[in-house]
Amino acid sequence: MRKIVIIGNGISGVTAARHLRKLGDDKILLISDESDAFFSRTALMYVYMGHMKFEHTQPYEDGFWDQNKIERVRGRVDKIDPTNKNLILADKQTIDFDVLIIATGSIPNRYGWPGEHLQGVQGLYHKQDLEALEASTPKIDRAVIVGGGLIGVELAEMLVSRGKKVTFLVRETAFWNGVLPHEEASIIGDHIKKHGIDLRLSTELKEIISDDNGSVAGVVTHSGEQIPCQWVGLAAGVSPNIGFLTKSAVETDRGVLVDRHLKTNLPDIYAIGDCAQQRHPIEGRPSVEAVWYTGRIMGETVAQTIMGMPKEYSPGQWFNSAKFFDIEYQTYGRVRAQKQKNEQHLYWSANNKALRIAYDKSSLRMLGIHSLGIRLRHDCIDQWLNEGKAYEYVTKHLQEALFDPELYRSPVKHIQQTFNTQVAV
Amino acid sequence: MTSKTRNTYFFFGAMQAALGLLVLTTSLFNKNSQNWLLFVALTLLVMGGIFYTHALYDRTLPGIKNNGVWHKGLSNRGWSAWLLGVVLTAFYVALYWYPETLGYNSQGNNSGLVGFFDSLSLLLNGKPASQWFVYGTLYTLAILVFGYKFLHKYRHNRYQVVRTISVMFFQLGFAFLIPEILSKLNPQYAYFNMDLKNMWPLDYDFFYDWHLNNQINSGSLGMFMLLFGLLMVVLISPILTYFFGKRWYCSWVCGCGGLAETAGDPFRQLSSKKKWVWKLERWSVHIVLFFVTVMTLAVLYSYLEKNNNLLGITQNSFVYGCIGLIILVMALIYGFKRKALNKDALITLGTLGTIVLALIIMNHTADANQLFFVNSYKLREWYGFGIGAAFSGVIGVGFYPILGSRVWCRFGCPMAAILGLQQRLFSKFRITTNGGQCISCGNCSVYCEMGIDVRAYAQKGEHIVRSSCVGCGICSAVCPRGVLKLENVATQNRMNNSGLIMNNPPDLLGGLKKTL
Fold this sequence. Notes:
Chain A folds into 3 domains: about 5-105 and about 240-305, 3-Layer(bba) Sandwich (FAD/NAD(P)-binding domain); about 120-235, FAD/NAD(P)-binding domain; about 330-425, Enolase-like, domain 1 (2-Layer Sandwich). Chain A is about 25% helix and about 30% strand. Chain A has 11 helices and 25 strands. Chain A has helices spanning about 10-25, 45-50, 65, 125-135, 150-160, 180-195, 290-305, 380-385, 390-395, 400, 410-425, and strands at about 5, 25-30, 70-75, 75-80, 85-90, 95, 100, 105-110, 120, 140-145, 165-170, 200, 205-210, 215-220, 225-230, 230-235, 240, 255-260, 270, 275-280, 320-325, 325-335, 345-350, 355-360, 365-370. Chain B has 3 domains: about 1-60 and about 100-180, no CATH class; about 270-415, no CATH class; about 430-515, Alpha-Beta Plaits. Chain B has helices spanning about 5-25, 35-55, 80-95, 110-115, 120-125, 130-155, 160-185, 210-215, 220-245, 245-250, 255-260, 275-305, 315-335, 345-365, 375-400, 400-405, 405-410, 415-425, 445, 455-460, 475-480, and strands at about 370, 375, 430-435, 485-490. Chain B starts with a helix and ends in a 28-residue tail after the last strand. At the A-B interface, α1, α7, β21 and α8 of A face α7, α19, α21 and β4 of B.
């Protein structure tokens, strides 16, 4: 019986633990500095907005861990000693391991902005970030959010729900336009403004200014404009949380370097989730993917390998989803914000709904599909992508892929008409 | 709408509703005799609801409106919730056991609140009001006013809109207006149930002797209601449940469900999702099913004796006919659906078996006045007191602000147990999980009024086929990632996964590991 130690109890670490337990009887130990039990990070926003209580973000009841003999330790890992196969925690406790899985997730990016460590400047990633925001809330009249991505828009929604004024600084010319093509980015941008957010596109943060007590008093933008505020949310992306590995023998770059079996350079040490970086990036995917779903898939995969059924990490067709205030977004395969050389798009939109299909100009195969305000059937589209269906097939059979609730008016006919005229041109 | 008009709307809405309630309350003390005042009071309540709704939602964009639900005392068991619970409970206690405190007088003229409603009652059904008329009117009003609010809250979701119009329609038309008007048109008939949608076993007195007698003695209308009631139980309901799941009744038609979905909506998140509560629910709902079935059959058994074996059915042939029917149902289930039996379904089967045993004991121990060694009329009195009044009324609605809106439907309703067994085993309905898109956020579980831990299935990529699901569709509505969809799919492979989330085949997992 081996002792398998997992650092981090987010979706990656916990999925690995669950699958390890399903497959065998090894000792399993989860270490977390953040929380006693697994919770859904993506649901923190709903706790702040009052949609749920923190306990609701925990998918498993208290008895679950004992029942399945998954031990938990609360503590911060300071150092890894691979030769002696043990970990040293901040409280000097040492923990031995036979197998180690590093699943430490991410930390919010800070770009060395002046004032970025003032009271009231924070990101939103950990449970502690939520607690800090809750503590700051009574003092906030206006908040400034920096960074036009998913966490930024979540923060905006959260603060507005509590009656705060929000200024949202986005460096790009449209919201999230590194991922969303211009049309979709504008739909979301307009929607954000409709919710009363002061959205500033093409605006960068220059510095954060302090009051006499070392708390935030405002921000200065690149154009020199001063915006008084009591709180600043940093939402300019995240990076692997690997600070504790700097002096260890574990090889790192931006993240912990792993091969396709999620093995690090050292025997019996694996890394999964946000903190892992593919040494040889998988075709068409970035080497670090900080997404719930890839974390879960890596957790499933690494458990197989550790249990003697070596399995390569193969994330399959890319998919993701998000919600921007009231507009849901789903994406499958690859739809690029900027069309690549051989890529052609079909696009439809009406009333805050949109659908886009990207296809390959020469083979006519669908490369990807995404939607705003329309739910799509994952298994159906996954199959079409795997089978390399042409965009014509997809357009024709679109109704089968619709996942909107019953009785919704189907936009499919409208979409088909629009696409047909686009193709004709 | 500017924030100033919004505040004005709030103010007007609250004032009108408060005034309406004040008029109703003062009538308790015999203060109000003018007929027009009742219409003023009811109008104030309706207008209050309308103003309040527009104040809440007009300035908002269409979308989920759950901000602050757990921050507000009323929706998070604060003192206001307890106060409301106490007031509602007191009202139910008065209604069921002390109607005279409401002014009801069976011997002469009504006074108080009931007397206040005489004019409306005379207009609709031609008789002075009873406490049940007052209750029915207020109940219908609550479904209409809070339904109006719900329609605005979920205006972006067409399933919710159509479903809510449906419960409002069935309450106003089928439960309220049609029966009242029919009894006005037929004043010569004694009371019997004229709500076409109210069926046995939820309507537990349908097969009571007085009820059958009243129906049989009420000409073609009575016979129609009797036959339609039977048809609902044996034919219409099973067919509709097969195609749509039990939601066709529980969240589209039923009056109890109607109130839960509208007036109860602000409390849906309070239902417990703990595993032990699911266990409790299994037991309690089946105990009620057992009692209602045995009691009904016992009453019919006595009825046959008194009516000299009506239609040539003897007591013996009745008992063994019923036993044969139940065993046939059990055999069919076991024969065709052995593999789909989960604990919920197994317990329903066990309950049916126990009912068979009880019938045999009854047939052998019965004498002229006693069944199960007690008077069969005592048996039904107890049921009426314990289940009909205390459970479905006092706890079922009075405890909305504490235990959530579907306490009765979840722990007590015998109909829900029967429809649930069918939904689990013989129905096309399921909630489909959309591949691997679940992020385990838990909105679905929190807002499930039936206490189903929807997320536990969704995060494993499993579809949801649960006996207790009433198909309200809120889990699908609140899901931020488009993961859940209520569907009527084929009965084959209804529970298979899409395979986009890795799951080992269940037979690999022993005992404890099942929850993984």
